[in-house]
Amino acid sequence: MPAIATQETDLSSLLDDGLAAMALPLDTATCGKLLAYVTLLGKWNQVYNLTAIREPARMIGAHILDSLSVVPHLPARGALLDIGSGGGLPGIPIAAARPDLHVTMLDSVQKKTTFVRQAIGELGLTNAEVVNERIEKYQPQQSFNVIISRAYAELADFVAGAAPLLAEGGHMLAMKGVYPHEEIARLPKEFVVNEVCELSVPQIEGKRHLVKVSRA
Question: How many other β-carbons are positioned within 10 Å of the β-carbon of residue 134?
Fold first, then answer.
């Protein structure tokens, strides 16, 4: 078997095993999009430096499964904003896994949004879009019922920037590593932490948590 075919098989097995461990069944077409995204990310990363992780096998756990770990915590439908999306994380995996959500990815770095726009087109994600803008200057036509960030900023800074874009009754979701006791303590009084969920992410080391915040 050619080396490239072996690599594709290995990545597919890593993804399948990870999804099974997370009890998150996805159809073959969706898995194909996720694997194609890893291939695109690896190719563009050689020039654009989109992620410090170079090995596609490590991208499965560190990027794909990590992003998908929040899927059970998302609403049944609506509009989601991914702030500081970078190379499309967690926005692209979420958009692939949840076609019932409209996913907008926001980042101020043009080379990253250029890649995300290309990925959206190649993967055929009709429920996704990308915006090249700073959060404080972003003025969408509609607000979002879910706003998420992954390693974007201090929790207080994230919610302060996201709150003006949040729909009434919506939630902000911050993906963190270890339980962020100190960041939660620094949260302004106009916001409240509704829940902190420990996320189980196969193929990565260290703790992962999801902090759910809303207006007080």
Answer: 10
